[in-house]
Amino acid sequence: AQRVTQPEKLLSVFKGAPVELKCNYSYSGSPELFWYVQYSRQRLQLLLRHISRESIKGFTADLNKGETSFHLKKPFAQEEDSAMYYCALSGLGNDMRFGAGTRLTVKP
Amino acid sequence: GAGVSQSPRYKVAKRGQDVALRCDPISGHVSLFWYQQALGQGPEFLTYFQNEAQLDKSGLPSDRFFAERPEGSVSTLKIQRTQQEDSAVYLCASSLIPRVLKGADTQYFGPGTRLTVL
After folding, report:
1. Cβ of A69: how many Cβ atoms within 10 Å?
2. CATH number reported for the structural domain that contains residue A87 in this entry
3. What are the residues facing B20 on neighbouring strands?
4. Residues of A in contact with B110 (CB under 8 A)
5. Minimum mean pLDDT among A1-10, A51-60, B26-35, B50-59: which range?
């Protein structure tokens, strides 16, 4: 069974500090991993996907198959990064499996 | 351009009532997904359409839930005899390509319909 675990419901950092949002997954095959973000009063939107190996808004995420992790990182957090972040996994099926989410607060 | 829209944005129903939730995907998008998001949780997959064909309904929690997309564009999620546990935000998402072409699709989400069953 595929499962996505985000161990932190809440994460708070100061502006300029590094931030890491953890995501661990369980899947027997080769999954696709995504990070989605939901800013206040906005809809859920794609932040980045592992297959693109890109950096969006200073965020990066590396798929570690050995540790079955896909942690989201940013070296210097900004106040506008405050949002709800969801890690998601897509396998062979049609469904996308989301984690429970981490609410990131970046304090001034 | 217009994104995915959903209506109504808020729906209050008495237990036992039937409700219908509408999703207007981005024009030309082949794939359409419905998700249920309970309070404090991430979205949970309900069902998937490729054009008008419902290819996957494995996530529908009971036979009270029914979805359709008769002309391959607008979709309706219907919940019969609503129960309190149906209270959630229902999200619709669409993507340009069929689900089978994995690795390239981005799902665009609507604002959701918040259903409260009293």
Report:
1. 17
2. 2.60.40.10
3. B78
4. 43
5. A51-60
